[in-house]
Amino acid sequence: METSILQQIKNKAGRLIELQLLKTGRVLEVRAWESSAMIEIDLHLPFADIQHWIEVPYIKFRVGNLSFRDYTPFGWDAETNTCSLLVDTAHEGPGSEWAKRLRTGDRIQYLKIESTHQSPHPTDFIVALGDASSLGHLLAMQQLTLPSTRFDGAVLLDNPHTGQLFKDYFSSPVTTLTKRSELISWLKKQSYNTAHTWFYLVGNQGMVAELRTLLRSLGLPNTRVKGFWS
User: Of 115, 139, 155, which residue constitutes the final position of a domain?
Assistant: First the structure.
């Protein structure tokens, strides 16, 4: 009984702290991709200092009581304080359930917006590699890379329909693949200038580690790594 009461007190205190620290935004639109686990969410964040997003940012969203998940925004506009998210709901968890519940007009809450400390090299060629969990991160990296002709990449998507929708919805040079073996083969076929190409790896930690090892074996040591989950 004492444990239960103590836990209730802790939960109440935690919620009070949350309310004091949280900022709010509004859902402008939600699009669940057909025959895909991907959900696209447009947001208005009036308190976000978007004009200073010079590195790929992440937002720590409140997805439940004392529960938070990090998502990378893309397609942001500093004049309107808007941005978008892509949430892969193929993996069960609080973040996926939160994204599935969202509707146009809903209020969202977030704890903070911070940098992932990834930004494109100012002059060299940029190659971003990731998976379904990092699709928004790849689009954010593309947005920051100027001119856009300096950007290339590939993403591993288990569902080929998701890959086709990505091509239909976004103007991006990112190649969509369904297997790790295809991604490895794709990398080997590219003729990047070793001295002036930077690789940015994001997503599943196992895949990221494998790709980093592969790049080194191919004599491509210039990498920036951001592993999200294991």
Answer: 115
